[in-house]
Write a structure and sequence with these properties.
326 residues
Length: 326
């Protein structure tokens, strides 16, 4: 009975907890409090508009600074005239021409023109598109260099140096002794020179950002459609013209060669004369005396022959006599 009573008590306590738990849940939903702050996505700050400065008329505090450079190649029938047209378009767009080089066509060179122009950065793309009316645009190259960090660094350094210069000027105005005055003036001179240098760099960077730089090269189309003959008659005419051109070149070459031929003939004549003169002055080789013996008279030769014959006979007879002796 004791176990039954304990078990019943446990069951009653458990039922009481189940009945009280929904009540607490219902009471928690009724209680109202301040709303929790909304969770901002990670990319929301990047999508937010930039902060604006009230003193600058509502413009963004930090804007992107870009230096635009590029080159354009154009082919036209008359490059010099096309350059004049492009210059008019540059001036109409509010730009300027920094460099202009023109070469009229000659017999040996083709006409050409080169321009270096400065244009407002926001009108560069429209200007390049409009160059198609001047000639055939064969190549376009543009480059955008972000210099925002460089510009902001220069701006911050200029502001810091300007504040330092202002403080030094105030110290100079309130200096009481000569040593402090000289030290302040020396520091002011150094800071002022650095400030002027940075200001010039920032001014140049602002000019590069405001105006883009384009190099435009204008040449002629060397492989034009009318250069090659299209039919038999045009081929004959082209062949005749090439023959006339070759004959003209041959005549010109002959005219240039005649003075050289005359000069070479004079040089050859002088060398031949010098060689002949040297040959005449050279002594003739001496003839060697012959070592032949003088010829004896015929009678002497005959007598000698008889004498030698008689001697031989005498010797021969003597020999015979000696042989006959016992």
């Amino acid at each position: 009975m004791l176990c039954v009573g304990v078990l019943g008590l446990v069951l009653l306590v458990g039922c009481g907890d189940d009945d009280a738990r929904p009540a607490r849940d219902r009471s928690s939903t009724v209680v109202t409090g301040p709303a929790a702050p909304a969770i901002v996505p990670p990319g929301a700050h990047e999508l937010a508009p930039p902060k604006r400065d009230n003193n600058s008329g509502g413009e963004p505090v930090s804007t992107r600074k870009e230096v635009v450079t590029g080159s354009v190649e154009i082919t036209a029938a008359a490059p010099v005239a096309a350059a004049g047209t492009i210059i008019d378009q540059v001036r109409a767009a509010g730009g300027r021409v920094d460099s202009r080089t023109e070469q009229p066509g000659t017999d040996d060179t083709e006409p050409s023109a080169t321009l270096v122009v400065r244009l407002p950065a926001d009108k560069t793309d429209a200007f390049i598109t409009g160059l198609g009316g001047v000639g055939q645009v064969t190549r376009v190259t543009t480059n955008r260099d972000d210099v925002t960090m460089q510009w902001e660094d220069l701006d911050a350094r200029i502001k810091a140096l300007q504040a330092s210069v202002d403080r030094l000027r105030a110290l100079i105005a309130g200096a009481t002794n000569t040593s402090d005055l000289l030290a302040a003036e020396q520091a002011l001179s150094s800071r002022q020179g650095e400030l002027d240098s940075l200001t010039a760099q920032k001014r140049r960077l602002d000019d590069q950002v405001a105006l883009s730089t384009l190099t435009i090269e204008i040449t002629t189309d060397r492989d034009g459609p009318g250069d090659d003959p299209d039919n038999f008659w045009d081929g004959i005419v082209a062949g005749w013209n090439s023959l006339v051109d070759w004959l003209q070149d041959a005549v010109v070459f002959s005219g240039r060669a005649i003075p050289w031929l005359g000069f070479l003939a004079v040089v050859a004549a002088v060398l031949w004369g010098i060689a002949r003169l040297v040959r005449r002055r050279k002594p003739a080789p001496r003839r060697e005396e012959s070592a032949q013996a003088p010829v004896e008279p015929a009678s002497s030769a005959a007598d000698g022959a008889q004498t030698s014959a008689g001697g031989e006979n005498a010797d021969g007879g003597k020999g015979d006599d000696q042989a006959e002796q016992p």
